Amino acid sequence: MQRADLHIHTRASDGEFTPTQVVQAAAAARLDYIAITDHDTIDGLAEALAAAEGGPVRVLTGVEVSAQHNGDEVHVLGYHVRPAAEPLLAHQHGALGRRQERARQMVRVLQDQGIAIDYEDVLRAAGTDTRAIGRPHVARALVAAGHVRSMGEAFERYLADGGLAFVPTELPSISEAIAMIRASGGTAVWAHPGHLVLEEYAPFFAQAGLEGIEVFRPNTQQESGKRMRGVARELGLFVTGGSDWHGPHRTRLGDFFVPADDVRELLDRAPPG
Questions:
Q1: Which domain holds residue 127?
Q2: Closest by alpha carbon to 4, among 264, 209, 251?
Q3: Cα pseudo-dihedral 196, 38, 64, 28, rounded to 10
Q4: Which pTM does this prediction carry?
Q5: 75-109 pLDDT, tens per residue?
Q6: Quick one: DSSP state of residue 272?
Q7: Are residues 120 and 71 in the same domain?
Q8: Does the residue 165 lie in any domain?
Q9: How confident is residue 21, by pLDDT bands cut at 50, 70 and 90?
Q10: Which CATH number characterizes residue 64's domain?
Q11: Nearest of 60, 249, 260 to residue 139 by alpha carbon
Q12: What backbone torsions phi and psi does residue 131 show, to the nearest 5 degrees?
């Protein structure tokens, strides 16, 4: 049985491993297919593809696009995107600018609350990861400065949605996100859909060009998975799955996988190579 994990992040966004380390870990875990799906950036793809060349792991090009619909933040996975596609590069450039400005605003809010932290502290915490700077990097800076004991505490006290230093960000609409993915040669899949809005949003997303729903995920309850598969079937969408892996701080890569035959429709859309 071939094994797949189609939702993995690297240090190009907010993961802990470099793309090369992800490929090496995937090979050690005996995964046959992985997808690199960093947040709003494809900067890790070239390294991952090079690291996988000639090896046992097939790397699918991917990206996870942050979008919004009816005031909710939603994420769309773009699989088989062309890394050199102009719409994708333009989206990445705009997303980076929005992320940097959002981080600066969070720093200013924290400063207004008497917390001694500078944007330069966030950049230092990010290291080489400034291509997709975000809340995890602000959290690391708060830990490094001794204001909190852990990233979890940083989110709980300050950075989580509705937290004391939470700053919303302007995002493209779901229709714009799906259109960008498709214009970049990709296949659009709704990532970790919210159960409360599944039936309400899915028909509109499908009409906008969505082609799949991420169903197979760690800790998904049997009833929830059945419900999502039913919605996908009714709308003519296929199903995918992945761990949403960010690093070994919680689980090892490969602890969760999807039988490749269960996501064959997406795998078969991959370009030759």
A1: 94-159
A2: 264
A3: -70
A4: 0.88
A5: 999 999 999 999 999 999 999 898 899 999 999 99
A6: P
A7: no
A8: no
A9: very high
A10: 3.20.20.140
A11: 249
A12: -65, -25
- 252 and 124 in a common domain: no
Output b/e per residue, 44-83; b: 16+ Cβ within 10 A: bbebbbebbeeeebbbbbbbbbbbbbeeeebbbbbbbbbb
Tell me what pLDDT residue 273 has. Answer: 61
Using DSSP's 3-state secondary structure scheme, residue 5 falls into strand
Q: Helices 119-126 and 86-112: crossing angle, nearest 10°?
A: 130
Report pLDDT for 221: 83
Separation between Cα atoms, residue 98 and residue 101, nearest integer Å: 5
* 108 contacts: CB under 8 Å, gap ≥ 6: none
Structure tokens at 160: 């989580």
Tally the domains of the chain. Answer: 2
**How far from the centroid of its chain's Cα atoms is residue 184's Cα?**
17
Average confidence (pLDDT) over 22-51: 97
Residue 149 included in any domain = yes
If you average pLDDT over every residue of the chain, what do you get? 94
Structure tokens given for 10: 């690297």
- Beta-bridge mates of residue 36: 8, 61
* Tokens standing for residue 161: 């949605």
Strands 258-259 and 72-79: unpaired
Distance separating alpha carbons of residues 109 and 87, to the nearest angstrom: 33
Answer whether 5's CB lies under 8 Å from 245's CB: yes
Same structural domain for residues 178 and 262? Answer: yes
pLDDT band at 129 (very low <50, low <70, confident <90, very high): low
Say whether both 63 and 177 belong to one domain.
yes
